[in-house]
């Protein structure tokens, strides 16, 4: 193998390589037409992905225990796995395709770890399902950087030039980016609010890492659950419906609507599936991933990827917030779920909570940070992330992309949710520990019904 100088593994990447925090991102990309596997293979061979240092490096540990990325020669056949066509079923039937793709994602969540004998990524081409599954270790980068790298090789369906504008009309900003109006207040008041809320949430982080935990419910996992068999279901949301709800509540955001949906959906699920009457106002707590980049959205990031594969936007540049939601079964107004979520998230935006994880990493090192994060995960109930994707349909090697769905594995939560928007729809992959939540399709329907109720309530407000 050809090698060049070694590059030290960053603290955040070291965290994702710890045994208790070993995570792989699994992204399913659907296509309109049958896959031209040779064209896809040739495109990937010449893409920015293969040229990127992280995708052409081995993870190695020297005799002193120091961890490095070591450049190596890529053998593309080791990374692209072509599944033979075996079925004659008509996969234009979306439900059959979705069910089988989710079954594959469920299986690889715990049964197929990436090998350290090669760079930590692979792509499965499944012609039966007109689908590609990208499996990328989280130590290589987060969802934003990985999606930007992939979309740099895509084109917009209505672009006759070389244009890779991606049809983005919204910037993929984290919760911070949505709080510009709050920062127009008096600077002294801003400082006081940041200090106050940051202090409160620092104490909350410490408490969650030591003794504070969610009550046992029909959706809560715990230590060791990351190794349990998994199931995956998809909740589908129309982005226009979410925007209708957002418009009905002054200064609300899509994230506010999303957390309102989660509150209402979990309330519906627990009210039916709990072994005893659901406690009104029951709190369950989630961890929300927040993009910390100051750069614009995926469109600009994709173009920057083309210019420089070593750009500073690459890597794991996100934080997390502890976000409680409250279950109610006697609330007649579905919009109240969004209003409560907005109040809670607005306070979180005024703090530096999202930076606490990175601060702990720098001060304590990856091993201690891993122990703290694992404890927090064991004491909470779910993980949620939301990523804005292209609003226009994209093509890869001339084949239109029909959906983009992502999930990850390696967390002790019984519910792990990742939402990606694309071409007017938002698909939320719901990965569950099936021995705790045996009916993820019903949970997905609870979330979908919650949005429809909120949309109808919003339309009733129009004079």
Secondary-structure blueprint of this entry?
Elements: E1 7-8, H1 11-16, E2 24-31, H2 37-45, H3 48-51, E3 57-61, E4 67-71, E5 80-83, H4 94-111, E6 121-126, E7 131-137, H5 143-151, E8 155-156, H6 187-210, E9 230-238, H7 239-248, H8 254-273, E10 282-291, H9 298-307, E11 318-327, H10 335-349, H11 356-378, E12 382-387, E13 394-396, E14 399-409, E15 415-422, E16 425-433, H12 440-460
Parallel strand pairs: 5-6, 10-12, 12-15
Antiparallel strand pairs: 1-4, 2-7, 2-14, 3-4, 6-7, 8-13, 9-16, 10-11, 13-14, 15-16
Helix pairs in contact: 5-9, 6-11, 7-8, 7-12, 8-10, 8-12
Model description:
This protein has 463 residues and is of the alpha+beta class. It folds into two domains: 7-156, Chloramphenicol Acetyltransferase (2-Layer Sandwich); 175-296 and 308-460, 2-Layer Sandwich (Chloramphenicol Acetyltransferase). Helices cover 37% and strands 23% of the residues. The protein contains twelve helices and 16 strands. The protein has a seven-stranded mixed beta sheet with strand order 5-6-7-2-14-13-8, sandwiched between helices. Strands 9-16-15-12-10-11 form a six-stranded mixed beta sheet, sandwiched between helices. Strand 5 (80-83), helix 4 and strand 6 (121-126) form a beta-alpha-beta unit. The longest helix has 24 residues, at 187-210. The N and C termini lie far apart (70 Å).
Number of domain modules: 2
* Principal-axes shape call: globular
Helix content: 25-40%
Count up the helices. 12
Head-to-tail CA distance between termini: 70 Å
Strand order of the largest sheet: 5-6-7-2-14-13-8
The Cα radius of gyration reads: 22 Å
- CATH class categorisation of the largest domain: Alpha Beta
SSE order = EHEHHEEEHEEHEHEHHEHEHHEEEEEH
* SSE class: alpha+beta
Spell out the CATH superfamily of the largest domain: Nonribosomal peptide synthetase, condensation domain
- CATH architecture classification of the largest domain: 2-Layer Sandwich
